[in-house]
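Discussion board: Methods & Data

I've been asked by a reviewer to show the raw model output for two of the constructs in my manuscript, not just the figures. I'm not sure how much to include, so I'm pasting the format here to get opinions. Each protein appears as its amino acid sequence followed by a line of discrete structure tokens. Is this the kind of thing reviewers expect to see in a supplement, or should I convert it first? Here is construct A:
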Amino acid sequence: MAEPRRETAAFATTARAVVVRGTAAAVLWWILVEGDGALWGLGTLVVGAAVAVSLRLAPPARSWPIAPLALSRFAAYFIVQSVQAGAQVALLALHPRLRLAPGWIDVRLALPAGLPRVVLMNVLSLMPGTVSVRCSGDDLRLHVLDRRLPIAAEVARTEALIAQLFTGVT
């Protein structure tokens, strides 16, 4: 008797993923075509293909509820960090004696695999001066503009804030 209930839950999870991803892809399409309604015929195909590919590459597996208060804290943190890091990169780039130490940093992750790690990797790549290169097991490799900066500490802080976003993540 448990099997039909599991199938129903799996269908609900997939249906929810199709709706969320389809909506996100449709909004992105609308932005890209600047709201031109004449392109929605092609847009329907593009959105459908995007959803199908996303389901294949990242199948919906687990629901990750978002904590609203943690989301507002994370948004504030992300904006402040982006401005600070952007200013720092601009100063380094404009400094006459540019002394960067670019390289690789390996960081051990505590976040569970799946959406929380994907969010972390994307957030780190959006921050000026860092790019997520590879996640293998619990190890994340980053390329950074300056290895001398406290990158590991910032990754740990960002990881802790992302863990708070997803309720039930320790």
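Construct B, same format:
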Amino acid sequence: MKTIIFSLFLFSGLCLAAQKNSFIVMVTGDTLHGTYVLSSGKIELSDAGHIIKQVNPDSVRSLFSGNELFLIWHGMLRTYNDNIETVQNTTYHDEVYDTSMLVKQIYTTEKMNLYFAVDKNRIQYYFVKRPADPQPEQMVVSYAISRPYNGDDRPGYNYSMINQQRIYVDQLKQLMNYCNKISDEIWGLMDYRIYSFKKIIKLYNKKCK
């Protein structure tokens, strides 16, 4: 199994390198202030350009930069690719990495929060967390090539298309206790996008007990 620590990329290339007015909250409850950078799988604390402490991400509960909240996520990250040329390559397959990531909280509600991260390959990932959950759960998506046959063997009359495997829909249904107040039509329109996750979570807060 491969092990990888992703550098931090969040929204518009936002990076926590050299971010002042930041602090981290340790699992123990201690708070450390200073300038932080995620480097080589460690969070480095520096003062006036000098590294004064290295912190293991697993020992960090959360990180604040300005008014923004980040959590440390550690788990088996399921990657994906939505490029049709890549996916149709017979040697391609989605990979799974044991990794630690900083994920940004982008939507906060009473029952469920939404988080977002981008890895070093600029692939976007979404995570959700209920109040009682120990850490956010990755919302999994995958892509596959389908080659529908229309009965015509002439060149160009059969085609390939890429289909989104919406694993995250079943994940959310389970996390939301299969709330029947959210219709199948709404689930059917859900996509792997921020606005779509926000819509479902908003309905969950409003309609489901």
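Answer (T.O., handling editor elsewhere):
This is acceptable in a supplement if you add a one-line summary per construct. For B, something like: The two ends are 40 Å apart (CA to CA).
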